[in-house]
């Protein structure tokens, strides 16, 4: 089921710099979508359109098949359903403490103090930062700031969570923990959409991908299909993910059948190699 769509979006920044050029995109409920492309391709600009922060010069965004509006009431409802977490958490954290920052959204929904507090507690617990509730936001580590920013979005209970380069700046262990948190949010009913230039992350974590180039989506579909399409990947300036290359090489050598799935995780790739070797 398509939950959110973009049709023919065009947008240029002041000075006439084009960012989106007739962009089309679809987001299906319950499927993780990775938006891939080089820096400057328009990925972040698209996210800002998908939650109403930016308004296109032409084209439209559809939510549940209905065209979105830009009145205060319409934007409030739109952002209640679609959360956005920017790459730099410092761009979103502004309150004195973590709990105050996370409570801002719920309180602006008109919830009572008790209801807002309950949402804050749930969001902090979901992100495993309940112990940081009273911590000053400027005293947080990089990873903690990312979690606090996401907690602020989660407290709004969005149907879709848009994340701009969610693992950027995190080490391997931090990225692994972060993806576990996102899986937990997905289990709570949130559809995940994230931008990245990390093809290996998309191969491992995404159900679907959209390839960007110069303000347009040049290909969209299942990650298992698009990320091994050499022509499409080359057009987007990207390389085939490492584990996919291993699987394709095994196929070409006759060591993996043509209808067997390619390994999507390191563990499954190692198990496959172990069976072949044994």
Structure characterization notes:
By secondary structure, this protein is of the alpha/beta class. It folds into 2 domains: 177 residues, P-loop containing nucleotide triphosphate hydrolases (Rossmann fold, 3-Layer(aba) Sandwich), CATH 3.40.50.300; 38 residues, no CATH class. It is built from 11 helices and 10 strands. The strands form 2 sheets. It has a 6-stranded mixed sheet with strand order 6-7-8-3-9-10, sandwiched between helices. A 4-stranded antiparallel sheet has the order 2-1-4-5, covered by helices on one side. Helix 3 packs across helix 4 and helix 3 packs parallel to helix 5. The protein is globular, with a radius of gyration of 20 Å. The model has no long low-confidence stretch (mean pLDDT 90).
What is shown here, in short?
The chain is of the alpha/beta class. Helix content is 40%, strand content 23%.
Secondary structure elements and their pairing?
Blueprint: E1 2-13, E2 17-28, E3 33-36, H1 43-50, E4 58-63, E5 66-67, H2 72-81, E6 82-85, H3 98-108, H4 113-126, H5 142-154, E7 160-164, H6 172-187, E8 191-196, H7 199-205, E9 208-213, E10 216-222, H8 223-226, H9 230-235, H10 242-252, H11 266-277
Parallel strand pairs: 3-8, 3-9, 6-7, 7-8
Antiparallel strand pairs: 1-2, 1-4, 4-5, 9-10
Helix pairs in contact: 3-4, 3-5, 4-5
Radius of gyration: 20 Å
What coarse outline follows from CA principal-axis ratios? globular
User: What structural class do helix, strand and pairing data support?
Assistant: alpha/beta
- What is the H-and-E element order? EEEHEEHEHHHEHEHEEHHHH
List low-pLDDT spans: none
Question: Which strand-content bin applies to the residues?
Answer: 15-25%
Q: Compute the separation of the termini in Å.
A: 43 Å
Find the CATH topology of the largest domain: Rossmann fold
Biggest sheet architecture = 6 strands, mixed
């Amino acid at each position: 089921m398509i939950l959110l769509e973009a049709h023919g979006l065009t947008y240029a920044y002041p000075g006439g710099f084009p960012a989106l050029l007739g962009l089309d995109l679809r987001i299906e409920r319950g499927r993780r979508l990775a938006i891939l492309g080089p820096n400057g391709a328009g990925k972040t600009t698209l996210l800002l359109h998908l939650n109403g922060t930016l308004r296109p010069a032409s084209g439209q965004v559809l939510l549940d098949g209905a065209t979105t509006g830009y009145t205060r009431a319409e934007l409030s409802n739109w952002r209640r359903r679609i959360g956005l977490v920017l790459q730099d958490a410092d761009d979103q954290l502004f309150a004195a403490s973590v709990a105050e920052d996370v409570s801002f959204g719920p309180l602006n929904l008109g919830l009572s103090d008790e209801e807002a507090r309950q949402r804050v507690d749930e969001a902090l617990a979901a992100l495993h930062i309940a112990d940081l509730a009273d911590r000053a936001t400027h005293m947080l580590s990089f990873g903690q700031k990312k979690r606090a920013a996401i907690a602020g979005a989660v407290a709004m209970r969005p149907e879709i969570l848009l994340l701009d380069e969610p693992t950027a700046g995190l080490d391997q262990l931090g990225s692994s923990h972060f993806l576990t948190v996102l899986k937990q949010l997905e289990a709570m009913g949130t559809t995940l959409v994230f931008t990245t230039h990390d093809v290996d992350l998309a191969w491992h974590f995404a159900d679907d991908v959209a390839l960007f180039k110069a303000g347009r989506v040049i290909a969209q579909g299942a990650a298992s299909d698009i990320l091994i399409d050499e022509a499409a990947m080359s057009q987007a300036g990207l390389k085939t993910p490492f584990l996919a290359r291993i699987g394709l090489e095994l196929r070409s050598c006759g060591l993996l059948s043509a209808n067997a799935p390619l390994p999507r995780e390191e563990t499954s790739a190692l198990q496959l190699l172990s069976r072949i070797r044994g």
